[in-house]
Amino acid sequence: MARALLLQGPGRFSWADRPDAHAGVGEVLVRPRWTGLCGTDLHILDGLHPRARFPLALGHELAAIVETGNLAGRVVLVDPLFACGACPSCRRGAPNVCGRGGTIGIDRDGGLGGLLAIREERLHPLPDQVPDHIVPLGEPLAVAIHAVRRVPSVAGATVAVLGAGPVGLLLAHVARRDGARVLIAEVSPSRRAAAAGMGFALLDADRPLEDCRSATGLEGADVVFDAAGSAALGPMLTAFARRGGTLAMVAAHAHPVAFDLADVMFRELSVVGQRAYLPTDVRAAVVMLGEDVAALSPLVTDRLTADDVPAALERLRAGEGLRTVVACPG
Ligand SMILES: [Zn+2]
Ligand SMILES: [Zn+2]
Fold first, then answer.
1. pLDDT at 113 over 90
2. Average pLDDT, whole number, for the chain?
């Protein structure tokens, strides 16, 4: 039996004992060790996630110890995506948008639900220098890597990152690594301090658009990453980009937002969506986490137990801290 922390409905957690998972063909058993909490978990908590069904064990940003198979005993980052492997999206190499796929911790039980049965190819061992509790950061790092790969090369480009939460900061890190000049828009003082601590230039908190324009000779940024998901920013998003520039939609908006399509047309902007990551992005994230662990570890600001999950999600809602990781039960 496994102790599981289950979300029973919007805002309602309870503990339960559940039978252990069994590995199917091609699967191995892993014991979740640390899971990160993010805005997706908040959407699920609030009953706003379109796919999540209750009861559900959260936990998609996951470090685990492998119990069976070739990697037994290793600490791994779990690639939480699953896909059908047969649909047109999967066949053209985009399993991240598989209509029959999903994510553990969203579409089925995740790291707070005890042992998991996972296909072995979705387990990624970490270099020794990465502490176990930092491993979950590999998941949002894969999001950032995928996002930067989806836009034209940022080498030598000016990139505006809207939002300095963990994904925004990871995006900024990946873009800077690729040779971009990065400007960050963020209102939260603590997140501005985190961005400044990582050496990023910040746009004026009250007038980010005007500041972005003046920092780019009134042209606008070559690439704009929306990592804020703010409905209020929606109508002005396009104005951050230069003529012919690219808008990259990284944040998940819970509702449709106003967006200036005429500006997209008149100034010939490209709008690029991006969802999660591909297996190659996860492999790249594991390597990068190993290389840059000193720079990225400060993004994990809180280390808690599973009992603290409800309180941790409320702190996340209030914008306190960056990434919280919780020790998984069992
Ligand atoms: Zn997440
Ligand atoms: Zn598919």
1. yes
2. 96
Euclidean distance between the first and final Cα of the chain, in Å? 9
Measured CA to CA, the distance from residue 79 to residue 227 in angstroms comes to 21
Predicted local distance difference test score (pLDDT) of residue 210: 97
Q: Are residues 267 and 148 in the same domain?
A: yes
Answer yes or no: is 300 within a domain: yes
* Alpha carbon of 160 to ligand 2 centroid (Å): 33
The number of domains in the chain is: 2
Query: Alpha carbon of 138 to those of 39, 253, 272: distances in Å?
Result: 16, 22, 23
Parent domain of 170: 142-273
Query: Distance from the CA of 185 to the center of ligand 2, in angstroms?
Result: 36
**Ligand 2 centre from 93 Cα, in Å?**
9
**Does pLDDT of 273 surpass 80?**
yes
Residue 290 is assigned to a structural domain of this protein: no
- Using the mean position of ligand 2's atoms as its centre, give its distance from the Cα of residue 32 in Å: 26
**pLDDT of residue 330 exceeding 80:** no
Q: What is the DSSP letter of 104?
A: B
